[in-house]
Amino acid sequence: MDTPDYIGALEIEGPWLVDAARQAGPLAPVPACPGWQVRDLLAHIGFVHRWATAYVATRLDTMVDEPDEKAILAAAPADEVRPEWVIEGHAALVDALRLAPAGLVCWMFLAAPSPLAMWARRQAHETTVHRVDAQQAAGVTVAPVHADLATDGIEELLFGFYKRAGRPDGEPDGRIGLEATDRPERWTVSKSGEALVASRGLDVCDVVVRATASELYLLLWNRIGTERLELLGTSATFRRLWDSHGVTWQ
After folding, report:
1. Are 211 and 219 within 8 A, CB to CB?
2. Distance of alpha carbon 4 from its chain centroid, rounded?
3. What is the pLDDT of residues 16-40, one digit of tens each?
4. Averaged pLDDT for residues 122-131
5. pLDDT band at 250, cuts 50/70/90?
6. CA-CA distance, 122 to 222, in Å (whole number)?
7. Which residues contact 144 (CB under 8 A, 6 or more apart)?
8. Could you report the per-residue pLDDT of 82-121, keeping only the tens digit for each?
9. Cβ-based burial of 19 (10 A; exposed 0-12, middle 13-18, buried ≥19)
10. C-alpha distances in Å from residue 60, one per residue of 6, 64, 88, 222
């Protein structure tokens, strides 16, 4: 995927998120985020979109101190206008990314070909994961993540958030294999102590998860479990190796 693809995905996912949030209502719990209601989900994503827009639109080249999550949730507008507030912030972010030059220079926090690519990619996935949260809160069928976007999101998580590829020193405590059934990609995740290291391709693993790219994406972001996925190995082994690293929030 390239930057226009990320922006296109972001543009689609934002309205889906708001539509599902409206169906759910502001007080519906968000299953993947214990303690959150839909009103908190909207407050969070509305802030994040504005936060990202500030770096892209004003070319901020250093990280700016931001309020903590409690202050973010408290600062959002009233429930009855919060969906429109999210729509406005989302539209401003899409516009900022589309108008930004390819050579944009601003602060970024994950490795990427450029700051513009990083912000477009990160916001596409941020919004997609929270769209899933909103649909789960509404109790509607969760729309699958497009295979290209899901595959890219797995790569962002494994090689962006976890930062390095290769093998940990010494024999790992265990290995998880990830095999996409609708894409050619395969990954091995090795755990050694607290270190989690990813590589491309399948190695000898303690457990292998076979699923669509969308299902693997949602599994790694802890939006679904392994119950309906094909496992070579046991779910207990997967959880032992992954639980301390899986992402639940944001």
Report:
1. yes
2. 18
3. 999 999 999 999 999 999 999 999 9
4. 98
5. very low
6. 17
7. 150, 212, 214, 215
8. 999 999 999 999 999 999 999 999 999 999 999 999 999 9
9. middle
10. 21, 8, 21, 32
Let me know: does 56 contact 94? Beta carbons within 8 Å: no
Mean pLDDT of the 178-207 span: 93
- Secondary structure in 3-state letters for 212-226: CHHHHHHHHCCCCCC
Matching residue, tokens 């994406």: 217
Backbone angles phi, psi at 222, to 5 degrees: 55, 35
d(CA 129, CA 13): 9
Mean pLDDT of 194-216: 94
- Kindly report the backbone phi and psi dihedral angles of residue 120, in degrees, each rounded to the nearest multiple of 5, phi listed first: -65, -45
Share of the chain above pLDDT 90, in %: 86
Report the C-alpha gap between 239 and 199 in whole angstroms: 19
The amino acid at 14 = G
User: d(Cα 226, Cα 234) in Å, to the nearest integer?
Assistant: 9
Cβ distance 220 to 4 under 8 Å? no
DSSP state of 110: S
Question: Which of these, 1, 248, 8, lies nearest to 132 by C-alpha position?
Answer: 248
CA-to-CA distance for 7 and 188, rounded, in angstroms?
29
Number of residues that make up the chain: 250
Highest mean pLDDT among 26-40, 152-166, 187-201, 232-246: 26-40
Structure tokens at 69: 């999550």
Nearest to 191 by CA among 177, 212, 209, 210: 177
